Structure formats: C-alpha cells, structure tokens
Structure to design on (583 residues):
C-alpha cells in the first residue's frame, strides 16, 4: 500500500474538503475538495493551480512550511478558485504527515468556507472595478480578510495578498482612530462617511472617508467597509475656507462701503463698517434691511437690475440711495455674483459719486448753453457778413479804379470770415458730440463731391486727380467730407501763385487708404510741420486762421486715422490723410 493509499483510507471518511500536497503537487484530494475547486481529478496537479494567481504563492508557501516544520501555526486562511475563476476564501487546518524515509507531506482540511466569503469572491470583479477601496476585516482583532484593487492602490501595497492577514490598525495614522471606529461599529453596527487620517504601508498619509457595516458570519463578526480618498477635497475645502476668511477680513476692514445681498430677495446679508458709516445705520441694522429700503428705484425695476447682475449681464449701476438722515446720494454700485460658504450672493461695492454727478450735470448745462450761444453767434455773424458782402459788391462798380483793390480786400476778408463760421460750426459739432458716431464711409464718392465743390468755388484754380480713386469704404463719420473740403480749400486759399495748382491722388495699401493733396504754393517750413495742425496756427503768417487744419487733425484722429504734411517736388506742400479700411 502506497503512502497515498494509506492517507486515503483515513481521509476518505472526512466530509470536509481535504487535499494532500507533497512538493507542491496534489497527491490526494477527496470529492469535497474537487467540488470546492470544480476539478474532476486534482491529483497530479500543482496545488497553486487551484488558487487565483495573486494568492497561488501564498498557498504553495504555506504547504511547504507545514511539510518542513517551518511553521507552528497550523491554521490559515487561504483563497482557492473554482473553474470559472470564482474566489473562495477558506480556513484550513494543516497537518504534517509522512515519515523521514518517505518524506513529509501536508494535509489540508477545510474547516470553514463562509457563504458570505463566497459571495465576496463571486463579486470580486465588480468590486475591483469600483473607484473606491473596499475591504472586509474581522471585528474582534481587525485582521484584513479581503480587499479590492483600489484599496491595494490606496494602501500602496504590492498585492491583495500583501494586505490580507494584516491588522487594519497599520492603515490608520492614529491607532486611537481605529479603536474609535471599532467602538462605533460594536455599538451601532454602522459607520457613515467618517473622515479619518489614514497611512499607507510606505508611511504616506492621506484622508479617507470611511463607511462600514458589521455582519455576522457564523461564529464571528466581520466588517465590510468602503474607503474613498478625500485628500484633494479636504485640501480644496481648506483653501476655500482660507479664501473666505481672507475675503471676510477684506470686507470688514475695507474703506469702501460694501454689501452682501441676497439676489432673490434683495435682503442685505452683511455690511461692513464703511457702509454703516456712509448710510448712517449700524451694521446690524443694515443686515436686517433690504436694498429696497435704500434705493429709490421702483422695486420691480430694482429686481430686474439684480437679475442682470446675477446673470453677469451687467455689473455697474447708477442709483439714488437715501441715507438714514434723509439725504439723497448718487452712488455707483459695482455688483457681481459671489459664492461664499456655499451661499450665492451679490457682492456690491458702493461708491458715492454725488459730487461728480453734480459736476457732470453742470457741465452738461454749460455744454447746452455753449451750443445755443455758438448757434446764435454764427447766425448773427453770418447775417452781418452777408450784408458786408452785399454792400461791397454794390461798391465794386461805383468806386474809382484806384479803390477797386480796397473793395476786393473787403470781399476776400468777408468770404474768409464766412468760411470761419462754417469751420467753427464743424469744430463745435465735433467737440459737443456726446457719443461715438463713427461708421463706414465711401471714400470715392465723398472725395469726388468735395472736388466738384472746390472747382465751382475757385474756378481760377487748376484742380486735378492723378490716377483713379480706389472704390474703398473707410472708417469715418458724417464730417469726413469736412476733412477733404478744408484741405482742398487750404491748398487754394494759401497759394501765392497766379494759378493755384492742386493735385489729388489716392491709393489703398492693405488695411489703409491714403489720400494726398499736393499744391504748388509756398510750402510749409520744417519747423512748422509739427505745429501747423495746432489750434489757431496760421502757418506762413498768412491771412488764414489755421482753424481748418486744426479741424482736419481733430476729425481724422477721431476716426483712428493719421494726417501729415511733407514737401512737394519741386515746390509746395503735400498733405496726406491715412484712414482705416472698413471693408
């Protein structure tokens, strides 16, 4: 009878799963072990082949240790696997059998195969896919019985086998925290989302949210738990708390009046000391009020403004606020949504602009008065100049020949004065315009219209166009024609030649278009080139006022263009206007 036959005679009577292992190979297995491992004939197979890959070495080492007498612990928890890969956590009693002559073998008798453990192993693939650590531990001594892949990663362990059998105490940064968790589970049987500081096997710490329940498995109580790493969340919460505290300090100490307002009700949640001083109420009184109590705007309109601020459609408002003593103050309110400790509020900074608003109103009134005065003066001056021109024309045929020159001077001066009133009108329009009325302007048609007008007004001048005018649309406004009108008239009126010659050219260069007006007049000396566009500049001590060139520079600058003057060849000046192309 072989040794295996000898073992079989004894072990066949055992109803629990039994297997005999010699040198890592199964030499005997009863029917119950075959059922446990879903194996038809385990004999001759390596014992490690009946365990999952991550625990196969544990099973083999334990069998070798028992056979060689290297262990005094004859009970162990091992994991075997069925044919379908189901993991079965079992408790075994181990016995060293055989003789010194035949060599020793290990007989394993499965004495405990918990039904719930089988359920755990059956669902292990699902548990390994979870993004949280899942574990099972014995309540009495804290021994880890099972863990999923995420817990292995959280604990910085090598494998599940590396964790299994360890005391859960090693995973707590503070051992007392583990006892507190165990006490709660003993008393209540449940632990819900408790944050504890944990420690990896390599000594690094992290914060975990721990939830667990207890379960009775035969004669012992186990803990089934879930651990989620909340380190980043806690760090973010800490940072948010620090920022909130910084905001509160800034809010409290700032010299500008500040309010925290409920966007739904308009209720004032908080006010700083500066707001209390400005409004004349205590901070406590303000916190019990609504913005309707301060703002004279109708409630429905004020609610609409709060909605705009909350939606970030607008964050700057001009209101009339009433102080505790009845004073009315004009205020600018800069209001933006803010989240403070999970509370959505409107953070409002109040700026008293009463004095500025009054000053702006006075300026508006003065502007209106100046506009009226400008219109009246221009009207009256033009009327008087028309009379001067009429009488001078009547005298032209009545005076002696030697006095014709005087009459001509009167007519020229009166004409210049009329032009001055027109230029003054244009300058006033520019200065008194409140809003930006820039828009695309057709360059060719605008320039051709002014060329025709100057030819009609000065038939003795030779006004020509070199090349063609590009069909471009430029950034301008309703007064762009005044730019070309003044440059063309300036080229004729300030010309000292018997026949003034004016040549106009235009070209487009990428995103800009340039118009040049060249004449054969006296030119502009270099020292005067930078100053000639200044208000009231008269150039070569001519009888012109220079207001036209000032208007040119003002209008061109208003539409984002540029104007300059250079020498013409062989004589005269060239004025260049560069405008941005709009098409």
């Amino acid at each position: 009878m072989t040794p295996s036959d000898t073992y079989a005679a004894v072990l066949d009577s055992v109803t629990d799963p039994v297997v005999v292992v010699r040198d890592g190979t199964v030499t005997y297995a009863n029917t119950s072990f075959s059922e446990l491992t879903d194996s038809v004939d385990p004999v001759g197979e390596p014992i490690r082949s009946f365990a999952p890959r991550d625990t196969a070495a544990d099973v083999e080492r334990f069998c070798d240790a028992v056979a060689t007498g290297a262990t005094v612990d004859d009970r162990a928890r091992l994991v075997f696997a069925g044919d379908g890969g189901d993991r079965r956590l079992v408790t075994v009693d181990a016995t060293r059998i055989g003789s010194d002559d035949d060599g020793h073998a290990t007989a394993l008798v499965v004495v405990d195969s918990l039904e719930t453990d089988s359920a755990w192993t059956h669902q292990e693939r699902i548990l390994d896919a979870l993004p949280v650590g899942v574990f099972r531990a014995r309540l009495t001594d804290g021994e880890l019985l099972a863990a999923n892949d995420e817990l292995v990663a959280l604990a910085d362990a090598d494998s599940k086998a590396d964790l299994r059998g360890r005391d859960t105490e090693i995973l707590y940064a503070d051992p007392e925290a583990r006892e507190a968790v165990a006490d709660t589970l003993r008393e209540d049987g449940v632990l819900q989302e408790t944050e504890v500081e944990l420690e990896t096997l390599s000594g690094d710490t992290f914060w975990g949210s721990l939830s667990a329940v207890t379960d009775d498995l035969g004669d012992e109580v186990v803990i089934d738990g879930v651990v989620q790493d909340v380190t980043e969340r806690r760090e973010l919460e800490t940072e948010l708390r620090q920022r909130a505290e910084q905001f509160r300090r800034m809010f409290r100490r700032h010299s500008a009046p500040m309010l925290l307002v409920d966007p739904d009700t308009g209720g004032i949640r908080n006010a700083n000391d500066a707001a209390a001083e400005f409004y004349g109420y205590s901070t406590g009184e303000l916190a019990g009020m609504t913005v309707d109590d301060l703002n004279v705007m109708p409630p429905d309109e004020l609610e609409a403004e709060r909605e705009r601020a909350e939606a970030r459609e607008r964050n700057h408002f001009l209101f009339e606020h009433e102080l505790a003593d009845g004073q009315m103050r004009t205020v600018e309110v800069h209001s933006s949504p803010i989240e403070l400790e999970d509370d959505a509020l409107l953070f409002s900074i109040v700026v008293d602009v009463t004095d500025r608003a009054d000053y702006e109103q006075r300026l508006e009134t003065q502007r209106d008065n100046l506009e009226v005065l400008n219109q009246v003066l221009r009207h009256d001056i033009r009327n008087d100049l028309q009379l001067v021109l009429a009488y001078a024309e009547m005298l032209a045929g009545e005076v002696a020949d030697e006095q014709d020159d005087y009459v001509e001077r009167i007519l020229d001066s009166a004409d210049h004065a009329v032009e001055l009133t027109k230029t003054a009108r244009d300058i006033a329009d520019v200065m008194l315009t409140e809003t930006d009325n820039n828009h695309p302007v057709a360059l060719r048609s605008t320039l051709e219209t002014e060329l025709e007008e100057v030819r009609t007004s000065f038939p003795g001048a030779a006004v020509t166009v070199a090349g063609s005018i590009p069909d471009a649309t430029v950034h301008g406004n309703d007064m762009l024609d005044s730019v070309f009108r003044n440059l063309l008239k300036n080229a004729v009126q300030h010309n000292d030649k018997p026949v003034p010659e004016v040549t106009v050219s235009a070209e487009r260069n990428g995103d800009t278009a340039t118009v040049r007006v060249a004449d054969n007049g006296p030119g502009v000396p270099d020292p005067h080139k930078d100053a000639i566009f200044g208000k009231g500049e008269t150039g070569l001590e001519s009888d012109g006022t220079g207001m036209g060139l000032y208007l040119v520079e003002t209008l061109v600058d208003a539409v984002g263009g540029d104007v300059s003057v250079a020498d013409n060849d062989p004589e005269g000046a060239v004025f260049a206007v560069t405008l941005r192309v709009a098409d």
